[in-house]
Design brief:
The chain is an alpha/beta fold. The protein contains 14 helices and 12 strands.
Length: about 325
């Protein structure tokens, strides 16, 4: 590991830098990455953001989004940039399997790897780590990295503030999750003072749904919701055919699991969806219930205590049956 003083020395002169984030990036992934980008270009660095895959249209308004390279759409260019990079910042993930095929290219790249993340159990691929599992978002850690590690808060302009506010807002559930501490609110207030238009950001992220997404949401809640009161659990399942029927695009399924969790008395919610390669699970929970434990133990995944994800090689029906078979093990916790 290099020290912060060594990193400051490196950053004192223009560097070729790549910033990347996890598969199917969400608001925090893109907010932290583009916020860091907007800071670094002010320092004279040559910076490129590379995402492993595409991401939701409702994030394309973010400042400097037009400069993002999507690995699956420009593989040769992305690999060349990674190999040429002197610094590679990894935002909002801490294991290289979270970035698919791009992961091995980064593992083998000669540049320094720098992790900025808040997830459990980081993989030791990095040369510098700014990591805190108690942070509500990677964007909070980017703010802390710029302000407190690099002592460069004066370069948080409107673009940086807008991106970081977006990341914090989305990963804190619009500031309603327990991770939204008083420190997070103070950071958000500072970002608003520095130019983040909080009302506009909320509108662009949350009030920007397509007609297809709304109709699909109605279908999920009306026809696909299964409530297991004996376990205080709600499950929504979706087939590949249903995704096709509603012409669902990347990001259209995001947040649907939260509707199941919002039902009175529900402590655990699961959104189980049939994708082309695997069945994916998104779990949300309340209180101390360990959604991440279920994902890690049974579905090759993980995440935060109250927000986690996983995948299964079984078909949709068998995956749902497996999930239901697990619930008796956690019955006492679910009924507390």
């Amino acid at each position: 590991m290099i020290s912060i003083s060594e990193l400051k020395t490196v950053l004192a002169t223009p560097q070729k830098i790549v910033i990347t984030t996890h598969h199917k990036p969400d608001g925090d992934a893109m907010g932290s990455s583009l916020g860091l980008y907007a800071y670094l270009i002010q320092k004279g660095h040559h910076v490129t953001v590379i995402t492993p895959t595409d991401y939701p249209d409702f994030l394309h308004w973010l400042p400097n989004n037009s400069n993002v390279i999507i690995y699956t759409e420009a593989e040769e260019q992305a690999v060349q940039l990674v190999n040429d990079a002197q610094l590679i910042f990894c935002c909002d993930f801490n294991t290289l399997n979270r970035i698919n095929e791009l992961g091995e290219h980064i593992r083998n790249a000669p540049g320094l790897k720098l992790m900025i993340d808040h997830h459990l159990e980081p993989e030791d691929f990095d040369d510098y780590r700014h990591w805190n599992i108690n942070a509500c978002a990677a964007a909070q850690l980017v703010y802390d990295f710029i302000v407190n590690e690099l002592n460069d808060g004066g370069l948080i302009n409107k673009d940086v503030a807008t991106c970081l506010y977006t990341g914090i807002m989305t990963d804190s559930g619009s500031f309603r999750f327990p991770s939204a501490t008083s420190t997070v609110y103070r950071i958000a207030a500072d970002l608003i003072d520095l130019g983040a238009e909080h009302w506009r950001i909320h509108q662009l992220v949350y009030d920007n749904a397509s007609e297809n997404r709304l109709r699909f949401l109605g279908h999920c809640l009306s026809n696909k919701l299964d409530i297991l009161r004996e376990f205080n659990t709600a499950i929504i399942t979706v087939t590949a055919e249903e995704l096709k029927a509603y012409n669902i695009a990347t990001g259209d399924t995001e947040g649907i699991v939260n509707y199941a969790l919002s039902i009175n008395g529900i402590k655990l919610a699961a959104f189980i969806i049939e994708r082309t390669d695997k069945v994916k699970l998104s779990l949300r929970s309340t209180g101390d219930f360990p959604a991440n434990e279920i994902c890690k133990k049974y579905f090759n995944g993980g995440g935060h205590r109250n927000a986690a994800g996983g995948a299964s090689d079984k078909n949709l029906m068998d995956t749902v049956a497996q999930f239901k078979s697990i619930l008796p093990e956690y019955k006492s916790q679910l009924l507390q």
